[in-house]
Every structure is written in structure tokens, then in C-alpha cells.
Amino acid sequence: MGKITLEKVTKSFGDVNVIPPLDLTIEDGEFCVFVGPSGCGKSTLLRLIAGLEDISSGAIKIDGNDASNTPPAKRGLAMVFQSYALYPHMSVRKNIAFPMKMAGVPQEEQDKRIAAAAKALNLTDYLDRRPGQLSGGQRQRVAIGRAIVREPAAFLFDEPLSNLDAALRVGMRMEIGELHAKLQTTMIYVTHDQVEAMTMADKIVVLRAGNIEQVGSPLELYRAPRNLFVAGFIGSPKMNLIEGNAAQQHGATTIGVRPEHIDITDSGPWTGTVGVAEHLGSDTFLHVHDTGLAETVTVRATGEVGFKHGDKVTLAPREDLIHRFDRDGLRVA
Amino acid sequence: MATQHSRSAARMMMAPAVVLLLGWMLVPLIMTLWFSFRRYLPLRGGDLGSAGFDNFVRFVTSSAFWPSVQTTLIMVGGVLVITIVLGVLLSLLLDQPMWGQGVVRILVIAPFFVMPTVSALVWKNMFMDPTNGLLAHLWQFFGAEPVAWLSSVPLTSIIMIVSWQWLPFATLILLTAVQSLDGEQLEASEMDGASPLARFFYIILPHLSRAITIVVLIQTIFLLSIFAEIFVTTGGAFGTRTLTYLIYQRVLESQNVGLGSAGGVYAIILANIVAIFLMRIVGKNLDK
């Protein structure tokens, strides 16, 4: 079981208020991703849940029990750190065994769990090596192995993929996803990469300056961003946010149109010149300017279109998929 | 200029320094070796011809030899244990954030800058004097009988003095090692349920092992040649005669250069055995 509830949690370092009062519930078995730009307090929030930082006020409840003042080891949570934090002088086997050794698990049980974890993570051949002899991806798996054997109520991941190269990151993303499907344990995952958030999460928590901007499933956030910040943060390439006359025609201060919701047609409201055309093979991203709008418009077209720098295009946003925001940046229904 | 030319030019320019250093080392070494095979008594007839291996045999069979080896080992070992145990604890303490950290660190390092002769004299006269010493006053304050440090526990006293001098060195090296420990490792072990004591033994101490071997190596080399501290306190009496001090007595007090030189050769061999032994440990530790 691993239901985690934060009630009016605050954190301040001296005079600096990092987390204003914050409420959040993470259901048992959920894969919850904290996402936000760097310095938004997402790592601090994770460390508060882990118990590595003390909360200034409020309460953290794990399965209904107040854990606000429980030491980290007693909260039943396992954490995977950004730097993996493996113990360099111990073999992989001893690294994985360490939490069990500290908990006084009998040797036989330790061996059984190590074997199971090593099998699940493809580490069986590396058990007697030291962390220094492993690649980044393998170290990452050892760190996960060390977390698994504790059979925790929830896993906490602190930007675990940020030290890996792009190809490995995609692979590890899937492995962590599969691990979650198999273990059905609560996972809290911190990242600044919205792609990781979108692909892995059951529930995304978008944070800015310690405030929760929106909580919801990836598609909820994609379809109905609550404000301009979420609208700009979720989705790649970024949503086009357009102000001025074009927005006022729709009765809003700002309108947002995703690049994939703009068609290149013969007749449309915006006609402009292609600045940069990024051909990815599967898609083409066109950056169109001189459309009469102040902003450059990004358009996602199919991979086979042949537009290049300087071409004239006419754009038509799909009217039913335009997001409207008011003066305060909040969504207008 | 081509690489080849600049290389030979570099060699030419380095040559004077190399020759000077080699000479500096080799001349005394060869002279020691030479004298160790001579009967050389400066005040009793000078060089009296070859002595074969007589000097070597006499030095080892003298009743003072084995006790002096033992004293040397106890002194070096004692200082190493004290400086490393206290050094580890002090470095952990100094790593804690506190007010006036910079000043405290400089003060901790200060004893290292005091010359051995001076520090030994200060300890002898200001602390360990049985009537006027600070320690005697302290003992009296608590109603105890003052200890005559340098005559009743002379070896312990000298170990205390030398440890005081070398503790800053050990602390300094260990402090840099403590500071290089990854904080996430400590946090990870905290989450893994390790108590502070377990964290110390499983995480911090293994991390310090490399720094500790380096401290042991460097200190051993310097501690084998302790002289001033013995000379100004006990003068080699009361079982404080180390190998180094025995050689000094043979050469200058007995005026037997040949016998002393043979002792010097033994000391070289002993130091090299220790050095090889320690280098292998360090090498093994550095490989990891």
C-alpha cells in the first residue's frame, strides 16, 4: 500500500518560502510525475516526502498515518537519486543488499531477493563488479535494484534519467514503465522533461515556484491546460500562444493553438513565409513568420511536405481546438 | 624547433638539477656505506683500516639494538593510531557548518607550523613539568598527585608530543577527503536505514581509506626519523632510545663513526622495507 497525502505542506529555507501551502493526494499504485522548470521546487517536494528535508508546517500522510516527523528509513519509501548514489567500494551485490542488511533481513531471504532483482533488471552477470566498472545505464539499474529489494510502499525517482544519453533514456523510460506495470507500486517521479512526464505518468503534477499549476492525466493536461504556463509547458513543440487582434476575435486575451492543430490550406486567416523548416522524416516543423501576428507560428505538417525557407503558406487553425485564456492567463471554457 | 630538439634541450637544462640532487643523495649514502666497513674512531686514532662486517655484527648484537627497534615501532605505531583516530573524528567535526569555521580550521592546523624542537621544549617546560607545568596544576586542582611525565611515562609523553605535532597534518588531509564525499551517498544510506554509526563504518570510513593510507605512508617516513623531540626531552633515557637516536649516540657520544654508519645502513633497509610494504598497500587502494 502506498497512498501519500500532503496536507497544507510548506517549506521555507530561512526567509525564502520554497513551497507555499500545498495539498496533493497520490493514490496507491499510481505513477505520479512532478514536472516543472528547474528551480520550481519539484525536487524539494520529493525530498520532503522522502524525509530528507523537514517540512516547515502541514502534514505528510502515508497510508493515512502521519509521517511528518518519521525518519526517512522508517517511512517505507525507496529513492533513486540523480547521481545514483551507489556505494563505490561495494560490489553490485553488496550495494543491493545494503538496505536489507541494515534492516536485518536473514541471509537466505537477502540472496533470494537479490537474485530476483538481478534477474528482473538484467544484472545477474554484473553482481560481483563494482559500480565504477559499470556503464551509466547499468548503474541506474543497480540503483533501482537497491530500491526494489526493500519492497517499499512507494518509489521516489529524482531525475533518474538526466545523466543518460538520449537513446538509453528512451530505453530506461520503458523499463521503468514496465517495472511499474509489474510491481503496481506507487511511484513518484521528478523530471524537468515534459516528454518523460507525458509518456510515463498516470498523473502529472505541474509545478511552478512551489505552486501546483495543474494536476491531471497527461491527456487532460494536453487537452485542457488550466492556464498559460501549463499550456506552454506541456506538448512538444510548444503551443503557439497568440495575443492581440487574433485573440480578441475569439473573445480572449490570449489564444493557444497547438502546432499539430494548424492545417496548411489554400484559404485561412494567416498567410506567411516559412522561416525554418525542420524535417524530421516523420514530421516537419515549420516556423512561419510575417503572418500579420506578432508571434512566429509553429506548424506541424506531415513528413513528406516539401516546404523550405522562403516559401509562402496559408494557415488555418482548427477552430474547435483553439484554447482561450483571459487577462490573468486562466483558461476560458 | 622540432620536438626532438626541444626534448634534448630540455634534458640539457634539467641536467644540472638532476646531477645536484643525485650528488646530494648519493654522496652521503656512499660515505655511509664506506664508513660502515671501516674502523673509524675520530678521537681515538681516526681511520684504523677495514673492519669487514664487524660493525654490522656489533651493532645488531649490542644489548641496545632490539629495545631501540621496539621503541621505534611503538613510537611510530602509537603516533599513527592517535593521529588517525583523532584526525578522522576532528575532520568530521570540522566539516560541520559552524560559526568561525575559517579561524577554527587555521587554529587546528597551527601546531604543524611549530618547529619540533620548540614544541618539545614547550611541552616539556610548560605542560609536563611536575611542579610548574599546566598538567601538574590540573592534576592538583582535582586533588591528584602530579605525574612526572618525562621520567615515569617517558615514551607515552613523547608519543603525546609528536602526535600533537602531526594531528593537524592528518586532520587536514582527512578533512579534504571528508569534504569530497558525495552527499547523495549519505542520503541514500540514510534512506536505506543506516544509523549514524553504520553510515560512519559503511560509507564514510571506506571513503576515507585512501586518504588514511596516504597519511600513514607520509607520516611513517617522517616519524621513523624523530630526533629533536627525544633529544630535548629525555635525551634517549628511560627507554626512549629509538633506532635513529641510537645511531646518533654511537656516532657522536661514543665517537664511533663506523658503528653508527652500520646502524644507518640498517635504518635505510628498515625504512625501505616499510616503504615498499606501504607503497603496495597504497597502490592497491589507488587502483580501485
Automatic annotation (TrEMBL), chain A:
MF (Gene Ontology): ABC-type maltose transporter activity; ATP binding; ATP hydrolysis activity
Domain of life: Bacteria
InterPro entries: AAA+_ATPase, ABC_transporter-like_ATP-bd, ABC_transporter-like_CS, ABC_transpr_MalK-like, ABC_transpr_MalK/UgpC-like, Mo/tungstate-bd_C_term_dom, NA-bd_OB-fold, P-loop_NTPase
UniProt keyword annotations, A-Z: ATP-binding, Nucleotide-binding, Transport
Transport listed as a keyword: yes
SUPFAM superfamilies, per database record: MOP-like (SSF50331), P-loop containing nucleoside triphosphate hydrolases (SSF52540)
One Gene Ontology CC term in the entry: ATP-binding cassette (ABC) transporter complex, substrate-binding subunit-containing
Domain ABC transporter: 4-234
A Pfam cross-reference name: ABC_tran
Family recorded in the similarity comment: Belongs to the ABC transporter superfamily.
Name assigned to this protein: Sugar ABC transporter ATP-binding protein
Lineage, uppermost ranks: Bacteria, Pseudomonadati, Pseudomonadota, Alphaproteobacteria, Rhodobacterales
UniProtKB/TrEMBL annotation, chain B:
Pfam families with a match to the protein in the record: BPD_transp_1
An annotated GO cellular component: plasma membrane
Cell membrane listed as a keyword: yes
Transmembrane spans: 12-37, 73-94, 106-127, 147-167, 211-238, 258-282
All copies of domain ABC transmembrane type-1, residue ranges: 69-278
Ligase in keyword set: no
Matching PROSITE patterns: ABC_TM1
Membrane topology: Multi-pass membrane protein
Annotated family: Belongs to the binding-protein-dependent transport system permease family.
Name of the molecule in the record: Sugar ABC transporter permease
Organism: Pseudoponticoccus marisrubri
